[in-house]
Amino acid sequence: MTTLNILSGGAAQGLVRGLTEAFRAQTGLGIEGEFGAVGLMADKLRAGTPADLVILTQALVANLAGEKLIVPSSITDVGRVETALAVRSHDPKATVTTEADLREVLRGADAIYVPDTKASTAGQHVARVLDQLGIAYEVASRLKIFPNGATAMRELANSTATRPIGCTQATEIIATDGITLSGSLPPGCELVTMYSAGITVRAAHPKQAAALIALLSGADRKNLRQRMGFTG
């Protein structure tokens, strides 16, 4: 089967998966993709990895358009994603309403599962928050860092730690079996990121890429986006 190739942040993996059958019925194409830290996905496109479509942070997509790798007129916002906390499904949810609450929750965890703290949106934010809370050094040995949020959340689900917690984008939490969205980060520590899609200048299937963008962003898919953790 001919496939549409995409490079995407992990935040959109569940949404793309949920649209695969509709896309195949509409275009006859399957979807092949790499999902990971947005910085790494952008670098793959820069290095020449074949792709018809990217789904990355709004800022990165704009940068890639400026580098003449994305067709500017094709850029479409998909939705916003918040960075949030996760716990294993059988663990109690963490109650966090203030920075002090978050500090104590993270101090009390014996393992903290996060995505790449240099190349991923959520991971970079976690690193900043730990510095902001003044506990980066204290919890450094407990950080469990993985290439992307999806992998970090799968590892959290299988964790044998006593009091583990995870922090990544809500969409990656919702898409992972065995863990539960515990709640948002408190005021002063929150992060909400807009994700956008764009067709690459070297796309082999630009019309089909446009069809997928329409599915990703269409008003008739609003409920699906919300179930997957996207907001308007």
Task: Explain what this protein looks like in three dimensions.
Helix 1 packs across helix 9. This protein starts with a strand and ends in a 5-residue tail after the last helix. Strands 1, 2, 3, 4, 5, 6, 7, 8 and 9 form a 9-stranded mixed beta sheet that branches. The chain is of the alpha/beta class and 232 residues long. The chain is elongated and about 50 Å long. The model has no long low-confidence stretch (mean pLDDT 95). Strand 1, helix 1 and strand 2 form a beta-alpha-beta unit.
Percentage of β-strand residues: 25-35%
Note the overall shape.
elongated
Uncertain parts: none
Separation of the first and last Cα atoms? 34 Å
Instruction: Assign the structural class, choosing from mainly alpha, mainly beta, alpha/beta, alpha+beta, or little secondary structure.
Output: alpha/beta
pLDDT averaged over residues = 95
Q: Please provide the ordered H/E string of secondary-structure elements.
A: EHEHEHEHEHHEHEHEEHH
Helix content: 25-40%
Any idea what the radius of gyration is?
A: 18 Å
Helical run tally: 10
Number of strands: 9
Give the biggest sheet.
Answer: 9 strands, mixed
Summary, kept brief:
The protein has 232 residues and is an alpha/beta fold. The chain has ten helices and nine strands. α1 (13-27) crosses α9 (206-217).
